[in-house]
Amino acid sequence: MLCGGSPVLQHVLHHRMISSPGFHCRNSGGTPILHNCFSQREDDPELPAEGLSPVSGGIVALGKFDALHVGHRELAIQASRTGTPYLLSFVGMAEILGWEPRAPIVAKCDRKRVLTSWASYCGNRAPIEYEIEFASVRHLTPRQFVEKLSKELRVRGVVAGENYRFGYRASGDATELVRLCEEYGIGAYIINSVMDKKQDSGKRDSGDLKDRGQVSSTRVRQALAAGDMRYVSELLGRAHQLILQVRIQDMPSERRISVPRSSVLNLPPGNGIYKSCLLLVGDELSIPCSVVVDTSDIHVETKELRLCNSDWSQEFRLLSVDFG
Q: Taking every annotated instance into account, which residue ranges of this chain make up the domain FAD synthetase (predicted)?
């Protein structure tokens, strides 16, 4: 996760093959860089030819990637500068920790599209998501977690935000992550938080004690609830897309779609009227529309009749509303 508030931590550590384990890679301006700072794990003769983990030899960004916002994208960019970028996160946390269920900011079926759009920032390589069951790592100490990264997953390097916490009860911080990675021969890079540029962002009370004005999924959720779609776009680095599961009976007229909230696959904006939206039907149709969000339904109204030309042979279709 990218969180602010701690002093600037920027460490780049070499793999054990570097003669001086405390060596820091920096450019002429003194800013740590990733290039050539991780050893090529694929040259390791101890690497088994078969049974490799899916992230073996890769660079993993660590975090909770709910919103896939610009801070998360920055982690992926840094990871891509040295190798194949992966986003490593945990699944099943809410169930185990007893969190209230809530709609995702990005629909699961839409995440690949978003990550593909990041390829142009990441050396034409779209980041790949890799998930671990939270139950399998919940009780690991910080040392045991890094050992898992090294010996089981065999990653070549990690990238994390400056106040990333890990290990049992979040007992490890970014400084300890760097130290343990050095010990286990993994490159580690800690990046500064991406800060919210909105002028009044500092006045917003997110309820998060770690909030120091950085871009976060919490801020995205608050902006969505307020219906501030321009602000949402700034935080995400793209327009928010709402994915609707639409049946033919959800079309009371040729120009209107009304779906219950139960048929929405991710988080809608707060109740209100949203004009200048786009209804996306597959890869072919992009129809100007307006959207009304109320407590029970999402209503989409267009000025064109092209909806009736869509293929409704299936029980339902997935349509997207772009709030750009």
A: 137-199
**Separation of alpha carbons 161 and 188, rounded Å:** 11
- pLDDT at position 4 is 36
Tokens of 314: 């299936």
**Which of the four pLDDT bands, split at 50, 70 and 90, describes residue 97?**
confident
From CA 318, how far away is CA 324, in angstroms rounded? 19
The reply to whether 158 and 171 lie within a common domain is: yes
Judged by DSSP in three states, 218 sits in helix
CA–CA distance, 212 with 201 (Å, rounded to integer): 10
3-state secondary structure of 246: strand
Q: What are phi and psi of 160, to 5 degrees?
A: -145, 160
35-85 residue pLDDT tens: 333 433 333 434 444 568 999 999 999 999 999 999 999 999 999 999 999
CA distance 178 to 159: 10
Structure token digits, residue 130: 């890799």
Q: Which structural domain range is residue 68 located in?
A: 1-238
| Rounded Cα distance, 232 and 239, in Å | 7
Binned at pLDDT 50, 70 and 90, residue 324 comes out as confident
Beta strands in 49-164 (DSSP E): 59-62, 85-91, 128-133, 157-161
